[in-house]
Amino acid sequence: MSEEFEELSRDTDIIAKMKQFRDATLKIEDTIKLATDPTLYEKLSNTDKIEYNFLMSYYLNSMFWMYLHTEGIDPMKHRIKLENDRLKKCMTRAKQINDRNTLMPRINKNAAQRFVRSGLWEMKNKKQ
């Protein structure tokens, strides 16, 4: 009796995991359809296009990483690990460049002209 219960329990676990896997696969498929919409890409700014391309590359590499796992291949010993590390570095570098450009102090040209003009100002009539 307990053997039948254990077997039924294993079957139920396998069915639940298969349903969970199917749901995750459908979510990934929906995400891919949304992400590969050509009208979406055209609306992005250059900075967003760079980030989009990095994310898509990282996403595809991650999918390949998962594929290697399902095939029983250790991804840590595969070249995909080096590619993922390279993409992470590139994404970090792009973020640093973007942050530097957005957080960099800008010169207010009008205010600078006023400072210079007031610093160079001389009285026309010294008697006053």
TrEMBL record:
Keyword RNA-binding: yes
UniProt-annotated location(s): Cytoplasm; Nucleus, Nucleolus; Nucleus
Keyword Cell inner membrane listed: no
Record keywords: Cytoplasm, DNA-binding, Nucleus, RNA-binding, rRNA processing
Family: Belongs to the C1D family.
Its biological purpose: Plays a role in the recruitment of the exosome to pre-rRNA to mediate the 3'-5' end processing of the 5.8S rRNA.
Subunit structure: Monomer and homodimer.
Protein name: Nuclear nucleic acid-binding protein C1D
Species of the source: Xylocopa violacea (Violet carpenter bee)
